[in-house]
Design a protein that fits this description.
Blueprint lengths: L1 H26 L13 H14 L18 H15 L4 H12 L14 H26 L11
Helix pairs in contact: 2-3
């Protein structure tokens, strides 16, 4: 009975996957150049640098994702711009400066640790320290033995 259930589950999974696999195989070009074939070394390094920079820039549309992870069209255009700038010889720092000049510090997913942005880094540490001190004070107060007051005579 158990083998029959397992065989039935395998048939169901195969019937769900088969149409998707056929659609994916139809999209892959045949011949020597396929999407899985890596490109020349310089392009691969450029792609890695582009992905590293794009993963640290915020998408203006999604706002919670980097332009690397965002499906928005604007994010794709920004990623292409990052690639063009890196290909033209600009450094990562210059690309970040370009985007911060255009959008402000907000565009960076990790704000620079200077000025008011230091609060982003140090406030959680301060709250944890204050909370730990408060908890230690409360535990000490709760575990202190109760001193019995002398009974008053009537």
């Amino acid at each position: 009975m158990q083998r029959l259930l397992i065989a039935g589950a395998c048939v169901m999974v195969a019937s769900v996957i088969a149409p998707h696999r056929a659609r994916i195989e139809a999209q892959i070009p045949s011949g020597a150049e396929t999407a899985a074939t890596p490109r020349a070394g310089a392009d691969t390094i450029l792609d890695a640098r582009t992905n590293a920079v794009a993963s640290r820039l915020r998408c203006p549309v999604c706002q919670g994702e980097s332009i690397q992870d965002s499906p928005a069209e604007l994010a794709g255009q920004m990623k292409d711009l990052v690639r063009e700038q890196l290909a033209s010889g600009r450094s990562e720092a210059q690309v970040y400066e370009y985007f911060t000049a255009k959008y402000g510090q907000w565009i960076l997913l990790e704000p620079k640790a200077e000025g008011i942005n230091l609060l982003v880094y140090w406030l959680p540490v301060a709250f944890l320290a204050i909370g730990a001190a408060g908890l230690a004070f409360a535990v000490r107060k709760w575990t202190r033995p109760v001193q019995n007051a002398p009974a008053e005579l009537p």
